[in-house]
Amino acid sequence: MPFDTALTRALGIRIPVVQGGMQWVGYAELAAAVSNAGGLGILTALTQPTPEDLRKEIARTRKMTNKPFGVNITLLPALTPPDYPAYAQVIIDEGIKVVETAGNSPGPIIKMLKAAGIIILHKCTTIRHALSAQSMGVDFLSIDGFECAGHVGETDLTNVILLRRASQELKVPFIASGGFADGQGLAGALAMGASGINMGTRFMCTVEAPIHINVKKAIVAADETQTELLLRKWRNTSRLYRNKVAVEAKKIENDPAVKEFKDIAPFVSGARGRQVFINGDVDYGVWTAGPVMGVIKDIPTCEVLLKRIETEAEETIRKVSSFVKPASKL
């Protein structure tokens, strides 16, 4: 049975599940598979080396699906930042209807995209940042709890708190991100006021995810304790899969004598992390994954996964509803 939430109505999707933007993962194969299965697939703009390459990836995705899909733009500090306005212009030119934004100082890009009538889903790790994004006119907020993979923020607040605070404070609808992998999680998020969920690690572990099978098997084999938090010393905390490189990097970061990021930079190289997804050596570099790995037990297609999530969520909602009985029957 299709869901009816603010998210499904606005995006024209059947199941309120978004595949979050993921570097070196958010390609056409995965985005199209998620959209075809009833969710919202997302291309990651900066996975493409140039704006014109993004244009080609959008075209490639359209050959694989006629369903809605979006594009992620994440704005992060860099010595030589990407040409974000050029990426945004390609998104506008290509008629993309929804964009997931994240990162620092998104105001100018949000303004540019909103002027083109694009639906903005902005990811935040705090209610303060969510309120700021709301004032910029975003349409949806993605509330990213401490359980998430990748950039977790610096407040360590989990979704049990953040989602309830979002319900209290926000005027625009929001979705829940971080720690979701199944229909029980979707049902729980809806119960706490969300309009849907965002999943990253769970979608990495699908047949269509364009990463090496060894990475997927590592996720299935892992439990919820096998992540590492790095870069907190530089207030850029990231949650990563706990492998040999991440453990060694953590030792270096914890050394009181280490002050400069350059001392740890070779261990957290994005280029090395990308090679993990290509060559399948899960210890070659750092890569993002969340503690939700403990919940993930298989490598399904996106269609099988989303059908299962839909069924589980419906069954969970019915089960919970059955706990409430008329007073006359007690």
UniProtKB/TrEMBL annotation:
Pfam families, alphabetized: NMO (PF03060)
Gene3D superfamilies: Aldolase class I
One Gene Ontology term of the molecular function aspect: nitronate monooxygenase activity
Keywords tagged on the record: Flavoprotein, FMN, Oxidoreductase
Protein name: Inosine monophosphate dehydrogenase
Native species: Ascobolus immersus RN42
Species lineage: Eukaryota, Fungi, Dikarya, Ascomycota, Pezizomycotina
